[in-house]
Amino acid sequence: MGSGASSQPKDRDLTYIARSLQATQTGVLKKTDYDTWALDAVLYSIGAVGTPGDGTFLVGNGSSWVGESGATARTSIGASTVGSNLLTLTNPSAVTFPRINADNTVSAIDAATLSAALGTGSGLSAQVLHGFPNRTATSRTFNNSSRVFTLGVATTATVYIAGVPYTLSNPGLTVDLDDKTLSVGLWFIWAEVVTGAVVLNAAKTSWDILDTTKIPVALVYWNGSAGALQEERHSAYADQSWHQWAHDTIGARIENDGSFAQTYPTTSVDGKIELVGGSLWDEDLETVVSAAKGKLARNWYETASGVWTFADGTNNAGNDRPYIWNSGTSRLQYPKSNSSYALTDANSNDYIAVWVFASNDVDRPIYTVTQAKTAPYNTLALARNATMPTLAFGPEMRLLYRWIYRGDGEYQEAVDYRTSSSLPGGGVTAPSASSVTAVATAPLTAGSVQGQLDEIAAIVGGRTIPFFLSDETASNISMRSSTIPFFLSDGTASSIPAGL
To answer: Going by DSSP bridges, is the β-strand pair 106-109/138-143 parallel, antiparallel, or unpaired?
Structure first.
């Protein structure tokens, strides 16, 4: 039958051969007849499998076709124990990661278990993406009327949560703060996965930066009628452990390139704010403040101890006033802490300290803060000793200046904190004269440098220099006089500047 036969023909095969020989004129089996016989033998072996059960695989064993179960078929095709276990892993119905165990079993583990196994603590390693790979693919808005925050998507956008990419589609995601029992204070908004889909959630409790189930999206400070929206869409490529460290030890910073240089106010242009544009960095997240937004201010003040509110600065010919202004009386106002924090006019010759910050606010990133007091400062020296208040309306701010104004709106002076080392929450490490201690030596009694300077100024201000006029009558001049009188040889009076 030729060398191609691989086994002895069965009865059915011999019958077929006999019939084939009868059909030929020569009595010789042709190659085409043999091919037909071989095909029939293959079909016969398939038919011998019989009626297959559910999940039966048809497998060639080298001589014929046989039916095998899934487990036997995996062995037949060379699958390893691990390969077989991956194929039969139960659907986790959650974001999990496959782990091959020492006994060649396969498990589906969550992000926390993976992190612990990798030795990265409670955070993710830098290789696991978590956040926004492209912030420009999304937008953020807050509607004061509906109290709805929207993470907008123009077409599609990708976010990563614990290393898993999720695609967001137009129009994006929303969260209604009214559904969260909205009240005055700072609200934290984040994205998380619920039943396989990304959703937004919100609470007044801060998120944990190392929490691998959430990615920060935004902050909203609700004052009872409006919300101040602040940026929090951090990069997917930032390391979370570093993020936590920088947040706790450094805080927000500005670029040392002349950012936020003071154009106004000046002593000749008192009632305007204008800062050069610049960049505020909240760890990896940059907030670019344009020159136009450097002319706007969001004025913050307390309505009760630790409870803050804000009002947009009053427009003054294209630039905001960087303080709370009573246009009816032309007076600066402050929250009077011993009178239910009511906004109260300062006297024209009183002094108010205004603290100026750069923030991650989406709409008005320049914040000005007027501290609550029982009364304004009645001297410039006391205003210089003002300390920065504790702020509760945003964690990502950087102190830029302290400005001192008189109650009638006259700008007095500034302290520039832009190049001082930053601290979390907007503070700086630069010492002021009032914070530097000094040993008191008579006649000085103050325990700080600033206090002793003020005492010296008071002493000098009260001293006089005696002199005699040409008619031998006595007189005197103050040591703080801007000029010193004298008489010429002809008896006429004149004076010279005291600085000469």
So the answer is: unpaired
